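To whoever picks this up:

The parser on our side crashed when reading a file containing two proteins. I've narrowed it down to the boundary between the first structure block and the second sequence. Both blocks are reproduced below exactly, byte for byte. First block:
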Amino acid sequence: MKHKLLLLVMFLVSGFAIGQVQFEAKVSKDKLGVNERLRVDFEMNQDGDNFNPPEFANFTVVGGPNQSVSNSWINGKRSYSKTYSYFLAPKGRGNFTIGQAEITIDGNIYKTTPVQVEVTAAVDEPTDGENSEYIASENIHLVAEISDTNPYLNEAITVVYKLYVSPRINVSDWRQIDSPKFSDFWSQNIDIRRLQVENGTYDGEPYRFVVLRKTVLYPQKTGKLNIEPLTLNISVEVPGNRRDIFGNRFYETVDKVVAAGNRSIEVKPLPQEGRPADFTGAVGKNLNLNVTTDKTELRATESLQATVEVTGQGNLKLFDLPPLTVPASMEKYEPEYVEDVNTTINGMQGSILNNYTLVPQSKGKYPIPPVTFSYFDLDSQSYRTLTSDEIMVDVAAPPGGSQPASGSTGAIVQQEPTAAKQFRYIKLSTSLKTIGEAPFMGSALFWSLFLSPLLFIPLVILLGKKRREKAGDVRGNRIRKADRLARKYLSEAKKNLGDQTKFYESLERALHNYLKAKLHIQTSEMSKERIMELLESKGANATTVAEFNELLKSCEFARYTPASNVAMQQDYDKAVRVISKLDKQV
């Protein structure tokens, strides 16, 4: 009986120990130099909530908290571990205590045991322990440089994203995780044809850097505006703790997420004092107004072209051109809008214009009044108003020799054309002839029209039969649908030229649907090896197959790297050419 009681007690104690919660603090070293880093891990064997770290009063947190979870099953037994890690830099020498951390597990609060750490004088060769994450965070930086943090409304500013990398580490790959939306701005990305590594400094230390993106922004609101961060996932090669036989450290790869950080600017409103009544929001430098006509002498009812053009540097796409006013006797058509604007690092530059077609209706001399245009000049920080010259148009008699109503040939005439002259091209008399005197009922034409619907009955039956056959052809319908989708997406890709994400998504869908139509396979079966095997078995040329696979690789690669408009146009032309070749070969 005693043996049984002893075994029962031992079983209960062991079961209690197995289910006991463990929450402890571990340090990478208990003695370190003031120039070294300390790693602190707070580890638990069950998941908890409301983790509360100690204050780290005598240390500076230079990394973390980093969270890691391990969950495994070994021989049917579950092993769970969750760890919060911090990297600390000591503020000075002395004996310090890492305080208690707290965690709530199943409604109970657990605390770690305080840990004693001794910080000595600086050591000659500092070792930071297993803090590859810290090394990566200290040696790689993504920075957003803003040209002006206090611009005017609709004044161009530039955001340049630079990635700084220390010579102590290497970057093997990177991909974009999140891109800023610029919801309160008009934005335009500047194409970077090739990423170029340059030498520079960061916090006074030598660094290599590369310009990843340049964006021109025109703020559309006043006040404090937020510029969202660009976020990247970067694979970084950092020196680890292992060394080779010569004492050199092995490098290990760490995936590091870096962000440029939220930036804010304060946008100033345009001044109310001195604002012209015709101001429509134009902001820029050295803007010029040109009002011209292609001719000043013509005959009545002939047309001429009048152009209102604004050139220079400013928010050219974001304001309306001033209207052109003409005499009442001159017919004016809706203008054709033309823009020739190039967006550079300094903002928009070029010209915008409205091209009017004018038609004078009668003889005379017609003045086109001056056009005024106002804009806010950034150099002088004041409003400027530009005025064009008056243009005189000399209109001679219309072809056919009709005389003007006024007897004076030298005076300026602004007369309304009479209704008879405006609509003189309309014929008021007709020359209709009767078809015939014979009755229509019973005639050959009557019976032809009456019986013709009966001839369509066999045709309708035949078309219905063909339609049912087509509807029953499930495989053929799937192929035809895929072919239509390929053409549709290829046309969508053409429309999306200039928008990298939408363009490559449409191009990839077009290629996949083309393969469905030609090879009768689904998207899940589209591995590169499978595609090559099927296309070559269908008679496709090996070079054409390789070009097709390169297009698919371009679509995949474009998700992670920026592409220029030229590259997108080249990929589109290549897709059209390759599909055309495969149509002939397969």
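<<boundary where parser fails>>
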Amino acid sequence: MKVSALQQARYSYNPKLPLILREDISKIRPVLGQKTQSVSDQEKLQKLFPNTYGLPKVSFEKGDKKDAGKKMNVGVILSGGQAPGGHNVISGLYDALKKANPESQLYGFIGGPSGILEDKYIIMTDELIDEYRNTGGIDIIGSGRTKLESQDQFAVCTEVCHKHNINAIVIIGGDDSNTNAAVLAEYFRAKGESICVVGCPKTIDGDLKNESIEASFGFDTATKTYSELIGNIERDANSARKYWHFIRLMGRSASHIALECALQTQPNICLIGEEVEAKNQSIEDITNYIADIVAKRAENGNNFGVILVPEGLVEFVPSLKMLIREINDLLASVEKEFNAIDSIKEKISFVEQKLSKQSRSVFDSLPDEIKGQLLADRDAHGNVQVSKIETEKLLIQTVEKRLKEMKAAGTYKGKFSTQNHFFGYEGRCAFPSNFDADYCYSLGYNAVLLLEANLTGYLSSVTQLSKPADQWQAGGIPITMMMNLEQRHGELKPVIRKALVELDGEPFKYFASHRDEWAVGTCFTFPGAIQYYGPAEVCDQSTMTLKLEHKN
């Protein structure tokens, strides 16, 4: 396979580990901390997870440990969407397994969770791993969105593990995937199986986090990639001086990506979904906010600018959130009848007739294009696929209409020409930044220590991430600690609670204190491309979010 010069150079990059993980792996032992509880619904979740609820946090220290160097067969599964650094998690897993015992084997199940259900796998080798070190994507074994959630599926997993003498499974995924890992761990324990299940936190959205999971891997690389593109557009906007660029960014359930990119690039406007919801803002409120800034900049002769829009904005607008919830519940109850309708116009009419008066009013106010996107194919949970709703185009239409009204009233005299963009897939498989290369390798390496100690139902945790890698702390937290109950397909299900942007957190407060200046002035910053070689302060830096959260 022909590779680029950069890819060839990245193969030889040696990821940095926390000091404790640099010790002889046979001399690193777990230390159990205090017992934990879930973020809410404690009694109900304890009943659902009687064997794995309330486990203690874990850290590691130097010292002798039981069963050091035992042979292990481990299965690894990549689950969900792509995120930069996945290959390094697997590399870390592989290297730690082989250092603990060269006879240990790593089974890579192909195509995500369906790989273990269909018993499709490859056994990792030095040659294979070396082809993927420090590279983007997760194509070494591929990923998938099959859910491991039924008793029949768990029975198949057990059978496959027995067939290959697999002692442990590592699931690399986001909140849903690691929820599945927790349920699988509970199933094994309930059945008296000794198979250990450990998760690794993956999602570029940044919404899988708490005090022990300071960042999900891939967030750093993705936001730096998007910020480079946004900076390029800002430079173009400031050069051409004739377009307003509306840029929608990935991040359905939280606005972490939009906020981090705003901190890095200082656009004129960045909408934060969590703030929109907290202030009970409508599309009209958002439209007026944008139009007022457009008008103020026009007064200074600046008929251009950059606006960042989080992908999931529509689910934070209270009236639209209520509409989406009602549509989700409605289509779940009339699925067959709805799917039998071919014409999108007929589908729109069908839904309109069944909505409540309030939701119908909101639905009727939307362009037909957006209505169709709200009724498109559902996701795996039966919900609207928010990524298919072109919110940036909706806002362009509503702002354009408002500016025409303002022009007629004599309160706006500028020109409003627009360009729209969606940055999503561009960031999911980029070459991982040094931060993500180091962090992901540490997560995988650390996971082996959890497996050796038979700490099932845990997430690999590496903290103190705003500091240099040698000061990072390694350990693990019970997955149930991050859980609550949520409505899925009309039923309450245990899931990891998504971490939203905290409006009283330092990253948002910094943004809020500067946005008025950024709005009217042209304060763009241009991060440029990710750097891999050079001074550590340039190449190894973490996100602005981490720096502000930890005041570094």
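After patching the parser it read the second block fine. The domain at 220-428+504-549 is CATH 3.40.50.460 (Rossmann fold). Residues 98 and 199 are 20 Å apart (CA to CA).
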